[in-house]
Queue: 4 jobs
Job 1
Amino acid sequence: MTSPPEPIVLLGGGGHCHACIDVVEAEGRFTIAGILDPALTPGAQVLGYPVLGDDAEIPGLRDRQLAFLITIGQIRSAQRRAALFAELSRLGGRLPVIVSPRAHLSRHATVADGTILLHGAVVNAGAAIGANAIINSLALVEHDALVGSHCHIATGAIVNGGAVVEDGCLVGSGAVIREGVHIGAGSLVGAGVTVLRNLPAGSLVRAPPAPGG
């Protein structure tokens, strides 16, 4: 007998939340109980789901044994996502891995708590993904690559075999990390950039402007 979907609360009600809602609905393991976002009015709705309030509601929801997913996007910094993850972990909140049925997660790969694989994402054999990461739509994490916690591998980005992306990094849309390259913690690789050499922690690499731009 199939177990009924479990309730889950989403933290953050912006654009990334919209994409996550679609994945949670498609996966079918959870039913969305509501959304926490201090920028939204309690009682408002996000794609038909109620806004329950702000982060002050987390302890009470945790006491009700609800699961959580952090649905705040990550562009410039992982700080807010990482802080929420730390607080939920401190409170004993459950942060499941969410995998779109249209993604491929190798049974020979590992993914830590709170990470989401969106539609079309591929995580191949021997790869390891840390906690609270976003592997966004159509992103590829190749064999034996390591992606740290609180990272965002954005839409269509490629992390090639054996590469290492340390904690708190953003690999922008369409960026390519060459095989075996090491990206230091907290780095930001801009959209469309190809990284061929190791980067120290805190690096910022952007594509050059187009001619005449």
Job 2
Amino acid sequence: MSLLRHSLLNFGGTTVPIVVALATIPAYLRYAGAETFGVLALVWTSLAYLSILDFGFGRAMAQKMSTVAEADVALRSRLLWTALLATTAIGTVVASAVWIALDQLLELALIASKGTADSIREIAGWLLVAIPCVVPLNVLQGALQARLRFAELAVVQVLSSLCTQLFPLAFAIAGMLDLGYLIPAALVGRLVSFSLLIYLCRRHVPIGGPPVFDVAILKGLAAYGGWMTVISVVSPLFVTVDRFIIAAIGGASAVALYTVPYEIGSRVMTIPGSVYGA
């Protein structure tokens, strides 16, 4: 294992999407406007935060998978199947519960305007549909990290980010600025990521055969992942909550003005994060 090589791959997989995101901002502001871009920025932030619903299983998967003997293919497959089924079930239950309680949540948030409430419902609807695909992503990535497939992970990250950034922009340039077009376009990147990660896990873990759910494995993942959940919940909350506060005070257009300098300044953390991942 080369720590330097894997760190550089992580750095490249993180840096290229940042460059693309920054390069597309002027085009978004020109064709979509500050307010629409602000809404998309909130959608992208929400997608990143939804990953906490894996309850630490992604990091637990990387740790547990790395301890399995190279010859024990069956155990690796059973380990990944268990984590995938568990996180998919968690995502489905959470999405269903939020959708059922959405009107009550809007009332608690004092959303009185019908237009605003309808827009939030539309955004939330698309995000909730995406949850069952978004939540297992960390598990798939953790399995591939344990198998030292950092090059493939970097490629997937770049392709997913390109789709997430460029698909909505293509709709905006075409004049299709309705959120019903832009938000699904922004979600395509997660679908691409999920599909590619499944393919890579079938090759390199490998995962195969009928789905298997092992309660003993689940308990081990939950025991390790529980502590990681605390970090996963608190850390992204402090990093992302500011955008939602700004949106509540100044509207979506204010988020657009805030996002650009923040993203540039915060990316210095990419360097230690690349080494940490490896």
Job 3
Amino acid sequence: MKKKQHEYYNRLKRNLVVITLLVALVPLFVLSWTASSNYQKYYKENISSGMQRMVENRKDVINFFLAEQSSFLSIISNLYGFQYLKEQNNLEGIFRVIQKKAAIVDIGVIGEDGKHTAYVGPYRDIVFDKNYHEEDWFKQVMVKGNYISDVFLGYRNMPHFIVAIAAPQRKWILRATIDSEMFDSLVKTAQIGEKGDAFIVNGKGVLQTAGRFGTYQLSPDERRLLYYHQGTKVEELETKGGKFLYATTWVKDNEWILVVKFNTKSELAPFFKAKRTETLIIFIGSLIIITAAVLIVNFLVNKIEKADRLKAAYNDQMVHTEKMAAIGRLAAGVAHEVNNPLAVINEKAGWMQDLLSEEDKDKIRNYSEYEDAIKKIKLHVDRA
């Protein structure tokens, strides 16, 4: 019986502790998780909208920059013509003027045979005698009338890209090399955070501007960004380096993709630090709540158990008292029932003694025995 009662109180303690902890801790954990999730969601939405605006702005700047370089060459081509520009001195004078306004490193006039007729720039010894007639860019500019290349090393073994304009009759080409460092700087201004990056990549996944950390190729995971979409797209990708937000938009007549990369983990580091502090506080608070719940429940249940034991003891005493009272009542009844006939016997014995005393002792045989018998009857009546 005692074992069952002990198990009952232990089970009561466990149930009360569990209920107390559920009531105290579950709302705390739910509130913490909800606040954390909402903050991260709100933060990412703000970052996404900021990235989208920045990418749209950089897109306009880059397209304007490329269009401006082509416009310079087109204006020069239409304004001066082949006969004037093929003269070295004339081209040098024009180059000195446009170099102040455009990001042009060198400029050259190329005939329909693919050879330079005039060139101004630091790479004359390398490029002047080269024949571009079989180059893809030369063929394209002769067909389309204008051309902007991808970034490549070329004969000078330096990253650069070219802008070329063909005369209306396709008899000659005005070609210029664009300063890739200046172009890179236009893209790098879109970098966000310490581990963020911004670069331009072509449709094959080759970077056209240097990545912040020396990368020149997209990772296999990042190659999923190479799909056509209108406007600016913001999406999150899981890569080997962690989770990143990518904002992408197409530039240069949909030949290049401007990519702005944002490291969410790095930029959320203060939040995660605060989250760890919050987790530690919740953990310590939970330990305090658990300890307090266990102590309070043990105290209360022990009090209840003690009260139940006292109640059981009082109940046992009451039962014993009731038993004793019943026995007393029974004894009183029995005594009453016995005393009545004894009183009659005692009365009759006294009456017999009185009668015997009135008789003559000499006339009654066995007088002494009668008298002795009456005394014994009265003695045993008193005893009973």
Job 4
Amino acid sequence: MILLLHNRYRHLGGEERAVRDTQWLVREHLGEDCEVLERDSAALGRARAATALVRGGLEPEDVAAAVRHTGARVLHAHNTNPAFGWRALAAAREAGARVVLHLHNYRLVCAVGTCVNSRGQDCTRCQGRDTLPGIALRCRGGAAEAVAYGVALAAHQRRLVAQADALVVPSDAARHRLRALRAPLGETPVHVVPHALRAFAAKSRAHEGEHALIASRLAPEKGITTAVAAAQAAGLPVVVAGAGPLEAQLRAAAPDATFTGWVDERRLAELRARARVSVIASQAAETFGLAALEAMADGVPVAATATGALRELAPAAALAPVGDADALARAIREVAGDPGRGAASIAAARARCAPAVVAPRLAAVYDALA
């Protein structure tokens, strides 16, 4: 029995998807029961969330009770802030479970988890227990929230890692960045386990595609302005699927692009079915590149910025420096002009993220703890 632990974010995203897919993978491909114990930041309230952060978690006895009730041999923790903290992991160990800590982002050191400042630029000013830059820059918004996160990370990051028998990251890029941030990984084994994708296209139709697709949250770190400019310079119609704080600004700046707003998975699949290329102009050091890999699995080749895990996913000709719209336009033309790139993208995504590839790697992490 594997018990997954996750504190849901106020704004749901890729990590919630990863937790759901991990449960499916354990049940369907490892043949083991798997349950999820969750808390929800949206229901916690800001004052209680701040208290949880500073204390290192609330009500750890609930986690111990869940371990005993389910008979879990492994507690696989995903996001622990703010409700769970290091105390939840310690309680699970005391109840008899081994602990895996899954680091989907850089929140051991960075308050926002992405190493992105308020201007959407990559930032590594916080290092190890020195979280003062994040407090001074108010990376978490208001002064009170910035102080709560900065103090809590500095106080509890070592305790959190100390409760883990193994650490999991989604890419080599994530592991290297965590070490560059002087995250307190210590001697705890660090395993690279990609997210598993459930489905892959039988063939690619991208060579018949009509548009360049930008599927992303419309936030500064996603480089949407660069992506739109590059796709237009490459001579392709542009479709932007997503919502976020920059939506109105982007619509006004690119009246010739089609903005769909937020779309569900079915509608996104329809947009990918008519796409010639997926453009990802992230300015952040992505830990995995889920949007890129999902497009590739659907047979849509990717042109992207050479940052974080995106460098592991696409060939050099499909990559461009961050913020360089002209170079990204050349990458888009290279990708769109290669009729075999779609099939190669499916093969690359399958080799990295097929359940038959990921499941043994996850099983090896669990089994090493026995």
